[in-house]
Amino acid sequence: MLDGPVIAEWLPVSAAALVLLLVAAGVAGWVDAVVGGGGLIQLPALVIGVPKDVATPFILGTNKLSSFFGTLSASWVYLRRIRVQLVLLVPLVAGAYAGSTVGAALSRFVPREVLTPVVLVAVVAVAVYTLFKPKMGLEHAPRHDGRAAIAWRAGAIGLLVGFYDGILGPGTGSFFVILIVGVLGYGFLQASANAKIANLTTNLAALAVYGVHGEIILVLGLAMAVMNVTGGFIGAHMATRRGSGFVRIVFLVTLSILIVKLAWDTVVQFTS
């Protein structure tokens, strides 16, 4: 935790920590809006900024509260500017909710140390695949005709990534994007629009769980939500104006950060 007295009982962080958390929330909202993965910034900031005697569920719940509102604002911008197909979006969202629910239920039985190296390999593979396919996702060219062909693939993507979000979580938005691009042939920009709605669903499911148990630092979460919304609004506008090429670059940078984080977590697991 950053040194300094806490501001108040209902805001258990120092002034310096509050500044750090607000800035982190704004940057995370921007990243999340463009390509997903803002949790790679916001969650570690909360771990650093919140006192160690605050239980982990409160940190996770506060993170979800902020992320939910940021994703909501970004989704609104995307939906105003990017056309989405209900035949894709509905099964994607339904699969994401179901997968997240199952993943969350199983997360207590599957050790993180087993999952982290597996996810690391998967993320490296995605990064290499994207890097060596420079034209992938730059144009919006859906590959599959027919509602059934699109629907079952979208549902499978939602189920798979939703399950991952429930059981582990980092980089969920990025996984939504790359699978929509790679499997369905969507451009990065269109994939991000759909990924935002799916990620909003998984955030809402998790937020409901934390909210029911009262595991949210409400004032801090709402303050960070304001910054997350601001960052998300700016990021979504930049993405829709600059197009898929811009989103692809941010996607690769976000994957690089995720690879470093997962690699560090894996080294710590096997050396501690």
TrEMBL record:
Residue ranges of the TM segments: 57-79, 86-108, 114-132, 173-192, 204-226, 246-264
Superkingdom field: Bacteria
Membrane topology: Multi-pass membrane protein
Protein name: Probable membrane transporter protein
Cited PANTHER family: MEMBRANE TRANSPORTER PROTEIN YFCA-RELATED (PTHR30269:SF0), TRANSMEMBRANE PROTEIN YFCA (PTHR30269)
Pfam family, one: TauE
Family: Belongs to the 4-toluene sulfonate uptake permease (TSUP) (TC 2.A.102) family.
Compartment annotation: Cell membrane
